[in-house]
Amino acid sequence: MVGHRSSLAGSMFEACKREEAITFHFSVAEEEVKSWSPKPTIKVKPRDGDPYLVQADILLAADGLKSRIRDQMLKELNINAQVIDTNQAAYRIMLRREQLEQDSELLELIDGDRVIRWIGEKRHIIAYPVSSKQIYNLSTAQPDTNFAAAPSATYTTKGSKSEMLKTFSDFCPKIQRMLNLVPDGEVCEWKLRVHSPLPTWVHGSMALVGDACHPTLPHLAQGAAQAIEDAAVLGVVLSRSPDSSPESINKSLQVYQELRKERAETLVELAAASGRALHLGEGAAKAERDKQFAALKDKKGAVPDKWADADVQKQIYGHDCMKIAEESFDELFAKL
Predict the structure, then answer these.
(1) What are the pLDDT digits (tens) for 90-110?
(2) Contacts for 4-11 with beta carbons within 8 Å, 24 or more apart?
(3) Residue 24 belongs to what H/E stretch?
(4) 246-250: long-range pairs with CB below 8 Å, 24+
(5) What is the pLDDT of residues 138-162, one digit of tens each?
(6) Among candidates 333, 173, 314, 331, which has minimal Cα distance to 254?
(7) Could you give the count of Cα atoms lying within 13 Å of 50 in the half-sphere of its Cβ?
(8) Cα 4 vs. chain centroid, distance in angstroms?
């Protein structure tokens, strides 16, 4: 079962609007954490207005790979942990059903109930239908050549259609036909970056969430999923906190870290390892990988593509993070 991420985000937003306790402040940027304790105080600036201070019981920094709050926390704690270039980039392409309707083979793809991955040396493409089979989504990974001279703050760029076609010129005819359907001027390329593991996600009554603390390569499809697990566990531990004192909040956030950090970082490494296996060039390692793929026709052995490996899927989807948080909160909290 798949869905468009805008459908998920839109549904969550609609649910939040029904909660009287939730207020959204759009177009307001965090500029600086003024104090971390006993209650976090941050300086924020509206897009069209003057900066002002906000004091909170809890600050959750879900501000992505380029997290300004994480960078301030690391500086405050004198920790050196850097954003890491993976030397990979990704095209993200969405083809509408009407673009595929005149091609029976492509129509078969969007009408199918399966994910397909095409792999080659240092490159792959994964594709599947979304939005009730009205959109065919393709996500690629390839060597990063277009960002090499770009400023470090740059994460997306307008891509060249001819360069995209050249990058995947030896892939199968279906891929060539789909990539040719992308309108000129609408090729978008993302730089793929990760972050070295952090010694802590928590500082006082502040906790990092999602890509701010465990950005991952897309090869396991777990980026948004692990952020949602973070949020689910935070919901449990904060609801179980005995009171709203800074001490109890800090302990509850440390329980969140205890429950989430090792799991998220394990999946980050699994995603990287899967990418390495998919992108092998000619040699003994590729030959061994291809033997493993061949053996799967007889349903034998592990899957080199970890996203499709039954044991990895059980590890990812068989994990009830909320149940574990409920059952272990009291014991973990008492140890702090």
Answers:
(1) 999 999 999 999 999 999 999
(2) 4/130, 4/131, 4/135, 5/224, 7/131, 8/224
(3) none
(4) 246/37, 246/38, 246/39, 246/204, 246/205, 249/57, 249/58, 249/205, 250/202, 250/204, 250/205
(5) 999 999 887 755 656 667 788 889 9
(6) 333
(7) 1
(8) 14
